[in-house]
Amino acid sequence: MEAKAGIMIHTISSQEVKDAFRESRRQYFVGNLKKAQKLNHVSHKQVEIGLTRMSAGQKERPHYHKLQWEFVYMLKGVFLCVDECTGQQYRFEEGDFFAIESRTCYTQEALTDCLLYFVKCPAVDDKIQV
User: Domain span at residue 61?
Assistant: First the structure.
């Protein structure tokens, strides 16, 4: 295999991440972002990768994504996800992983302070609030 000229290794320091999270609860490391954020991210059209911090009791309104799948690894906390179509409740804790298929309408609630590592693909802004 031959190396390609002009290929780069992109970095984001832990201090940059800490600074960005002082002002925001969600930051993307990678993505095709339309909205400005504090953290300097790696632009990519196929995948979004980031962190979400939620405080105990914080909820997100029901929504779904037309195309995007979401993959989540729980770094910290206890988290509730509800499939709004079936009513099925899923409780996740530190170390758990879950995947949400596109077109699944769901709500989220942090039962304790949470930190979630997420990957979304494709990298499109297709969130539909219900």
Answer: 14-129
